[in-house]
Amino acid sequence: MKKHILTLSVAAAVLGVTAPAMADVTLYDYEQPTSAYEDAYVSGRLNVNSGNQDQTSHDLNIDMNYDRVFSSPDRDINITGDLQGSSKRGSNAGDDTQENYIGTGAVGMNKYFQPNSKGAFWYTDGEIGVKKGADDPRVKVGAGVGYGRVVNVTPMAQAMRLVEALRDKNKLSGDLSKAEYNQIANIIAKESEYRAKYGAADYQQNWIADMEAVMKASGKTNGELGAVGILKSYDVLVNERISTRKYGWLVKAGLSEVLKDYDGGNTKPALDVAAEYHKPLSNRTQFSNEASASAILRDNDKSYTANNNMSLTHEVSDRIDWLNSWAVNYDHNDTTGQDTTTNAASSTYRYYLSNKLAFDTVAALTKVDDDIGGNGNDEVDKSLFMGVTYRLK
Question: Which region ranges are annotated with the description Disordered (predicted)?
Answer without folding.
Answer: 78-99
